[in-house]
Task: structure prediction
Amino acid sequence: MMTPYNVPRVKSGIPGLDDLIQGGFPEGTTILVTGPTGTGKTTFGIQFVYKGAELYNEPGVIVTLEERASDLRREMRSFGWDLRKYEEEGKIAIVDGVSSVVGLPSEEKFVLEDSLNVEGFLRYIYRVVKAINAKRVVIDSVPSIAIRLREEKNIREILLRLNTILLEMGVTTILTTEAEDPKRDKLSRYGVEEFVARGVILLDLVEKDVELKRYILIRKMRETKHSMKKYPFEITEEGVVVYPSGEIY
Result:
């Protein structure tokens, strides 16, 4: 009798989510987290890396292309997350991809130069991952990669190359992107991101009783049995919390 194939799982660090995806993300895969502005995509990604370091002793890299590293650290302290502590322990590395673009000096250890091309960008991410032996990566966000590299027309090729490198390194990665109108099935800014990623998670808002409520929908997750229902989630004082047994919209 054949033994069932068990896919190694990486705990998300997000309460309630792993119950919906057979215990965690498939190890070494790339997950796209998409949704409109203000739905918690950045928090979701940072939580994945932070909890990896805090709870599972898994080093992680945060590539921030929309906020300076110093601003990100300050914002995450509202959840009680001390990113600096794990940076000093070598468990988290933050890549500042903003300062050089806006012409501000940076005192960060890892800083993306303004003049990087695609190859330089990919090599730099590879080097930082290897520097701390990272197991987790979050890149926030895909549109910022395209704009920064001035390569919006070639974004599919860039994402394919990025995904190949990430898979070769064996890291589990979250990419964030904007969904202009998910209710009309426009799941991403460029319409290609969801085809490159092996998993797609949508964070969105729905009006209920004259109030906007957040919900999560797992649109795709390879090697995983998952529901296609919408589940409520909240951004609490301790980060993102999913309610798998809550009311389904």
The chain has a mean pLDDT of 91. DSSP finds eight helices and twelve strands in the chain.
